TrEMBL record:
GO terms for molecular function: electron transfer activity; heme binding; iron ion binding. It comes from the Bacteria. Pfam families: Cytochrom_C_2 (PF01322). Keywords: Electron transport, Heme, Iron, Metal-binding, Signal, Transport. This is Cytochrome c. SUPFAM superfamilies: Cytochromes.
Length: 149
């Protein structure tokens, strides 16, 4: 019961940070900024695959869930290179503090990579989705709260 509640809360929290319906003033045009927001969109899309299964709006499919988590891990591994150039764009949501403490920023990317690759090897049943999303979602939030507008 407690585990179920905790997993439900973790799913709700993770879904809340997926800005699927968040209005956005403009899309970035700077190629470097487009590359990093595309990576984040891919991460978001794959998290939604897990979220849909967790909510029951998609049937549980262990291989597809593992693939989605592995895709998140692969994008996370690319974050340090994608953000290295402090390119700016009026539509970017990156805070300049990223480049003042880049080591901490990339450590947070490594936390995501670890959580997602752990999930990729651990999700074998629908009951694993909630804890996996909780673990991954905590790392999204840890980075966004400091580094994203
Ligand atoms: C290491 C830091 C970091 C981690 C970890 C991280 N993000 Fe992000 N994310 C950012 C930053 C910075 C931006 C803003 C990028 C910009 O606009 O320049 C962003 C933007 C986004 C966007 C908006 C993309 C767009 O359309 O512009 C989504 C969606 C997103 N992140 C989802 C996630 C999810 C889901 C996770 C966890 C599975 C996650 N992020 C983990 C730093 C991170």
């Amino acid at each position: 019961m407690i585990r179920t509640l905790a997993a439900g809360a973790a799913i709700a929290m993770t879904l809340a940070i997926l800005p699927a319906t968040m209005p956005r003033a403009a899309e970035p045009t700077d190629p470097q900024v487009v590359a990093r927001t595309d990576a984040m969109k891919t991460i978001g899309r794959n998290m939604r695959v897990l979220g849909d299964m967790a909510k029951g709006s998609a049937a549980f499919d262990a291989a597809a869930a593992q693939e989605a988590a592995a895709a998140v891990a692969a994008e996370a591994a690319a974050i340090p290179a994608l953000f290295e150039d402090p390119a700016q764009d009026p539509a970017s949501e990156s805070r300049p503090v990223i480049w003042e403490q880049y080591d901490d920023f990339t450590a947070k990317a490594a936390d995501l990579e670890r959580a997602a690759s752990g999930a990729a090897s651990q999700i074998t049943a629908a009951a694993d989705l909630g804890p996996a999303m909780g673990a991954i979602g905590a790392t999204c939030k840890a980075c966004h709260s400091t580094y994203r507008e």
